Structures are given as structure tokens and as C-alpha cells.
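Deliverable D4.2, example record:
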Amino acid sequence: MESNKRKQELLKEFLPQLEKTSIAWFIWVGFLLVLIFVAIYALILQILRGHIITGMRDNVVWGVYIVNFIFFMGVSYAGALVSGSMHLFKTSWRGPILRIAELTTIIALCIGPLYILLCIGRLDRLPFLFMYPRIQSPITWDVIAITTDLFGCLIYLYLSFIRDFALMRDSEDIKLPKWRINIYKTLALGYQDTPTQRKRIKNVTDIMSAMIIAIAIIVYSVLAWIFSVTLQPGWHSTIFGPYFVIAAVFSGAGVMIILMRVFRTVFHLENYITKKHFVGVGLILMILSMFFAYFTFSEYLTKWYGSKKLDDNLIQILFTKYFWLFIFSNYIGTLFPIIIMGIRKFRSINSITIAAVVAVLALWVNRYLIVIPTLETPYMPIQDTRPEWIFYSATWIEWILTFGGVAMFCFLFTLAAKIVPIIPVSEVADAELEMSEVLHAELKIEKEHDQ
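Output generated by the structure prediction step:
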């Protein structure tokens, strides 16, 4: 009864987030829609005129589209790993940020694969990938992996929503259109929060938590293998699997911190998303930056020391044409979070957020440096060709579609926050009850010890 009462109190506190829509909200959504429609216009131009209006050519057949694909997929897998791990290991402070991690997983996973479609010159042949798949092809591995991951994450996300759907269905204080109440009623699947149902939800969610952790690691490893099974300089590496997984969780932790800061400010969640949460995820960011720095050092050290001609050419390009991007990606992007989190007096919410922004930008640049310089250093060089065929420079079409993907990510997050509370009410209430029981038990033990 005490738990149910607390859930109703929390839901009542978060209802204005669902019921009221401010002018600022409409301005924000309108801005995002403008970016999305401009991106659609750019996409139509690309379909009508072909890839000639992009910077992709015979050598550099992939550009910022594949960089965005890798980045969004990494953010998605990071959200799955973070949310799954926090739920599975019963992290005490997980409640307020768990839904942000879950939504990050699904939304990024829906947007990332779209960038692969932008790389395809003949979209009419896309169905052949499903009709006539070749298991020998790494692209087929990726299709199977992403589909499996999307299916598993959707189930996990839905399980985490059922209890809050039931709360909103049964709430007498909620002031929403009847059609929305009926949607909550349908999605709640008759859940009544009985002890048996709570136990079933918990058991199934625990199983799905373990499964999405494993799936996320496998899927992002498969994405890494698409690169490493080739003979291209810079890609043919045995450590690309763990390197990509670490980079994915690194970037995802940064995105989570940014989203925590945004929702904390917009919805005034200072009592729920506290400095403790920023420090907790910030420490994860710091540890991952150390691992990422180690893998980056190992990757480039072996290439430099091996002195293969093609690897030497790649490293020369990185330290000349892409020197400042290389420094920002592999030095500033890794050292800045370590400094902020390693020195206690620097651990403010603002400084942790800035460190997250730097890390996310550095990880995007890192993906760019993995893809573009390698393609500009082909395994079989082409002689007597125009420079614009060899070297890559993204056009406005590619940048608009890049910003359109970011706008779509923000737009879907904004809509999600209007459908369910961004703070999982049932999860927070249960966590508070567990904490109070633990404190009560500790006080009881201390009292008995004093006697």
C-alpha cells in the first residue's frame, strides 16, 4: 500500500509534463521539423541526381553517412549496455536515469540504419538483401544482428513501460484526452500490479537485461568485423571488435550525461537527477576513456612499428592532413573527461556535461578518422585520376542529412517525453522503498548491537 501511494504521488508530480504543452515546446518541435523537412528535401535531391551531389567517389565510397551509422549504432548499444547492466546488478541510483538509457537505445537504433540506405546507389535493389542473403557476406551478418537487437530492445523497453502505463490508466488525477487513456489501457495489457504480476515482470525483465547486454556486444562486434575482415590499411585489425565496443559505450555514456542535463533543466528534475547521478555516469565515462585511450594507442603503435608501406601512408595522412582532428579525437577527447572526473573539485554538473560534449564530438571525429583516411589510402592505388576522385570532402547534402538525423533523434525523444514520464515512476518508487527497508534494517542492527 505504501508503495502504491508513493507511485501515485510521483505520477501526480510528473503529470504536468504530459498534460501541459508550452509555447516553447511548440517552437522547439517546429525547429526540429524544419530541419527534418530540409533533410528530406536533400534526400530527394540525392535520389533524383544520384551520389554525384555528395562527396563520395570511386575511392571514398563511404563518407559521413557511414560515420553517422557507426556513431548512432554505438550510442544505441551503449544505452542497452548501461540500462541492462544497471537493472541486472540492481544499481541503487539507477531509477531516475534508467528510462533515458532505454529510450536512447531504441531511438538511436531506429535512426542509425537509415544512414546505410543513404550509401546505396540503387535503393530498388535493397529488397534483394532480404530475399537473397549470402551468409558469406559481412553485410548480411549486420542485417541479422541489427534486426535481432532491435527486436530484443523493443521488448525490453516495452516491459519497462507496462507498469507506468497501468498507473496512468488507473490515475484519477490525469487530465488527458480519452483516446490517450484508451491507448494506455491497451498497452498496459491488463496489468494490475499484483504480487504475481510484479514477480513475472521482474523475472522477464532480468532475463531481457542479460540478453540485451550480450546482444549489444555481439552486434557491435559484428559491425567492427565488417571493417576488420577486409585487407584495407587501418581496418585489418584483430582488436577492432573490443575497440568498437569500448568506443560505443564511451560515446553512449557521454550522450546520456547530455540528455540527463537537458531533461533535468527542462522538467526541473533536480530532486531526482542529482549530482550523484552525474558523478556516477561521469566515472563510467572516465573509466571508458582510459580503456579507449589504451586501445587507440595499441592500434596505432602496432601500425607505426610494423612499418608496412600502406600503414605508413595512412599514418602520414593522419599526422599531416588530419593532424588537428587526430589530436582532438585521441588526446583531448580522452584526457578531458579523465581530468574532470579524476580531480574531485572539478566534478560539478556543468563541468561533467562539458566533458561529455567533448567526448561525444571526439568519438564522432574518431569514427570519421577510421573511415575517410583509410579510403583515401586504397589497398590498390589508382593512378592518373583527378584529386576530387581520390580525396573526400562532404557536401552540404551530406551535412544537412547528418543534422537531420540529430534532429530526428531529438524529435523522437521529445515526443517520448510527452507519452510517458521521463522518470520511470514505478522504478523510482520501488527503489525508494528498497532503500528505506535497507536503512531500517541497518538501524535495527545498530540498535541491537548497542543493547
